[in-house]
Amino acid sequence: MIDLWYCFTDLADDAALLAEYRALLTDEERAEELRYRFPQGRRQLLVSRALARTALSEHAGCDPRVWRFIRNSYGKPGIAHPAGTGLEFNLSHTRGLAVCGVLRGGPIGVDVEDRRRPTDAVALSRRFFAPSEAAALAAQPDANRQDVFFQYWTLKEAFIKGRGLGFSLPLDRFAFVLEPGQPPRVTFEPYDQHRPEDWQFARLRPTDNYQVSVAAWLPPPAALRIRMRAALPLRWQAAPRAAGDDASTEAEHCPS
């Protein structure tokens, strides 16, 4: 079961709450906050870090302040303390929304993008995507192209984050197949003992403005299950709701 937590960052709109989030952080994380020039960027960092700590603490039954994190050589965060939780997590944020996925026992990657962002979908796909993906995107009607582009983009980012390799794994080395009524599947030449069939994916929309994708290492016969919940860290969290691939969910701005 993947728990997918999300928070609309504009809800964290008072200085007292942001100060509480800042108090959860390590000295290193506070220094990272100061490197953001604009208040919006600092708020997104504070909310996303508080969201991750809240989500992990819900699973582990500990105080959000106890978590310590490390990054691998490609920048993927992992848990340094407390040890032995068996939890994996991944975090993503874009303008207005932070998302955190938590999974017990296997790698996970999460990506979110603002679908309102202007994008030259065809040009970017030709530059970064696998040839089959670029061709599939170019064949889409104009009205669908932006939507499909963000599905591909978030799936690809979620996968490289799940693999823990970042952009050292070129985006054109693997390709997604999107078929109506079917969950996404990935194709690639097996490497590092990873097989395409061992990865499962889902596309979700907390609101129509945002595309979220999840990648999880779940070898057969495991089935991908996702629970989504809206939250405002340290204030409230909504009841979790089951979600599947290509799910659109009504935004929650307050506790249910």
| Percent of residues in β-strands | 25-35%
- Give the CATH superfamily: 4'-phosphopantetheinyl transferase domain
What's the CATH topology label? Ribosomal Protein L22, Chain A
* Total count of helical runs of at least 4 residues: 6
Q: What class would the helix/strand composition place it in?
A: alpha+beta
The major β-sheet equals:
6 strands, mixed
Examine the secondary-structure arrangement and name the CATH architecture: Alpha-Beta Complex
Compute the separation of the termini in Å. 22 Å
What helical percentage do the residues reach?
A: 25-40%
Radius of gyration: 18 Å
The average pLDDT is 92
- CATH class membership: Alpha Beta
Instruction: Catalogue the unreliable spans.
Output: none
**Quaternary organisation:** single chain
Overall strand count: 14
Q: Provide the domain count.
A: 1
Taken from the alpha-carbon principal axes, the silhouette is globular
Give the helices and strands as they follow along the chain: EHHHEEEEEHHHEEEEEEEE
